[in-house]
Write a structure and sequence with these properties.
Elements lengths: L4 H16 L16 E8 L2 E7 L9 E2 L3 H15 L30 H5 L13 H5 L4 H7 L14 H4 L1 H10 L3 H10 L8 E2 L15 E3 L1 H8 L7 E2 L2 E2 L3 H8 L5 E2 L8 E3 L2 E6 L2 E8 L3 E6 L4 E7 L6 H22 L1
Antiparallel strand pairs: 1-2, 1-13, 3-5, 4-5, 6-7, 8-9, 9-10, 10-11, 11-12, 12-13
């Protein structure tokens, strides 16, 4: 063996180990023996500094991201605007659903893409206790649009999966390709994300809200989230315009939300909160699916957990209250 080889090999092993072990999280009580936790990936300064999996899960597993699907849709809507397929988030739904022009409630003609992305469209929303009924609809978007409004468009925040699915329908109609085809061409492909499963509703459109979900590796969701740190750039390529990223990070129209970090606001399919005075933009999915973007720390924290309904709410609370502070404090030490 070459005398230089062993020291070089040792140096490589140590450096590779350092990439994934620069912060200490696994010793936290809330992490140890946590049966709901599947994965935590943390990147900072363009490097993955923590990449751990739990309860038999692996880096190669695809994870059900639930409503993180909405955050992926937000990136895709921004790209569609950049490419000229969609004029702006203030376009009205009636452009893509001309049947709304004949609806007796003329307020529906004023509903915009922004209002859908802000969960403030006023459209009918599914009964969360009977999701099976909504998922069985042969034309879910058409059903939503033709039901009576539940509130004045733009006035009331009401979390609405059924309305958010319409974003996928709009994207498909605007670009002439399926949502997944569009994502592969302009988002996943340029970022070398190849292993993706994205469920479809009964109407044939890829789920736009997260009830059937886009499934990705945790590290890939982390990679997507880094676009918010770098003005939409990835490895020297512009994926999403800096203008859209600025809107995501600093929305001008937003609404208070009853979950996530207490005091969070919501806009364009992302949440916003100041943690100890530090601005954080994050995505949230049922059961503790999270991706946190912390610009001042140049860091992204991405998490996947079980989606078991019996433990979903508790899992989210445990992560926000007990695990996130541990990770954040470790970031401060780097």
């Amino acid at each position: 063996m070459n005398k230089l080889f062993l020291p070089l090999l040792l140096a490589f092993i140590l450096s590779a180990h350092a990439v994934f072990s620069q912060i200490n999280i696994d010793t936290a009580t809330a992490v140890k023996n946590n049966r709901q936790l599947y994965s935590i990936v943390v990147s900072q300064n363009n490097k993955v500094i923590f990449n751990h999996y739990y309860n038999g899960k692996k880096t190669t597993d695809l994870y059900n991201n639930q409503s993180l699907t909405k955050s992926v849709m937000s990136l895709l809507i921004g790209i569609a605007i950049d490419k000229g397929y969609i004029r702006s988030v203030d376009e009205r739904l009636v452009k893509y659903f001309p049947e709304l022009a004949n609806d007796t409630d003329k307020r529906k003609q004023q509903i915009t893409i922004r209002q859908v992305m802000n969960q403030a469209s006023g459209l009918w929303h599914e009964d969360l206790t009977r999701l099976d009924k909504y998922l069985a609809l042969p034309n879910p978007s058409g059903y939503v649009l033709h039901q009576p409004l539940v509130s004045e468009p733009g006035k009331v925040f009401h979390y609405n999966n059924a309305a958010t699915h319409i974003l996928s329908v709009i994207l498909t109609k605007a670009c002439g390709h399926s949502t997944l085809q569009f994502a592969n061409k302009y988002l996943f492909g340029p970022m070398d994300i190849k292993d993706v499963v994205w469920g479809k509703m009964k109407d044939g459109y890829h789920d736009g809200c997260g009830l059937l979900s886009v499934q990705l590796h945790t590290a890939e969701m982390n990679k997507l989230s880094t676009l918010l740190l770098h003005n939409g750039d990835y490895q020297g390529k512009n994926i999403v315009s800096s203008k859209w990223i600025d809107q995501l990070l600093h929305p001008t129209i937003f609404y208070k939300t009853p979950w996530g970090f207490e005091g969070s606001t919501y806009a364009l399919c992302f949440y916003h909160f100041e943690y100890k005075g530090v601005p954080i933009t994050y995505g949230l999915g049922w059961g503790g699916q999270f991706t946190f973007v912390i610009p001042s720390k140049k860091a992204v924290i991405t998490v996947n957990e079980s989606i078991d309904d019996a433990t979903a709410i508790k899992a989210s609370i445990v992560f926000l209250d007990r695990i996130f502070p541990v990770i954040y404090n470790e970031l401060n030490r780097n």
